[in-house]
Inverse folding.
């Protein structure tokens, strides 16, 4: 039996799986319905649909790309209170074209913290980032995720507010509106 070759665990896949589990657990199950994506890998790993205090569904959803690490110090910027994570341009382009808020979820397995970056809002607030998309059009771009953006009860109101946003991509820019419930 020792001659049998079986599949082996790959560390990168284990870290990714751990990040997905951590991301799911970080959202309050009383208000968020987690959905794992299946099918083609287009850059969206999962979605979270908001359920309000009256148990009503409004079709208000956050989409997310999940990334994970065991070594957060490799991503910290010394001059800012943030992580720097290089995300593929094709994923950023996909996220910018979403009508719903699209988050980068950065999961630190050693501390069990999940940090979030609303990608469309990041580009709205950092207009110079669009030039990097146009110049490179392939590869990766560094995005900065503030340490304060942790998925937890303290920041849940901000995440809920993001579900009210409606985004439109036109003239090579993201535009944002808020909808009433």
């Amino acid at each position: 039996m020792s001659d049998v070759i079986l599949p082996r665990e790959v560390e990168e896949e284990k870290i990714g799986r751990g990040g997905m589990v951590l991301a799911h657990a970080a959202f309050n199950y009383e208000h968020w319905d987690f959905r794992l994506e299946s099918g083609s890998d287009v850059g969206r790993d999962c979605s979270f649909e908001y359920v309000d205090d009256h148990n009503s569904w409004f079709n208000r959803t956050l989409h997310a790309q999940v990334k994970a690490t065991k070594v957060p110090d490799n991503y910290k910027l010394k001059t800012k209170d943030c992580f720097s994570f290089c995300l593929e341009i094709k994923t950023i382009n996909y996220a910018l074209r979403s009508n719903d808020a699209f988050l980068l979820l950065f999961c630190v397995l050693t501390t069990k913290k999940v940090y979030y970056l609303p990608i469309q809002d990041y580009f709205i607030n950092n207009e110079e980032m669009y030039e990097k998309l146009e110049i490179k059009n392939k590869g990766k771009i560094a995005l900065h995720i503030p340490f304060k953006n942790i998925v937890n009860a303290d920041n849940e109101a901000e995440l809920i507010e993001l579900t009210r946003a409606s985004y439109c991509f036109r003239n090579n820019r993201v535009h944002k509106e808020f909808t009433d419930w």
Remarks:
- The two ends are 62 Å apart (CA to CA).
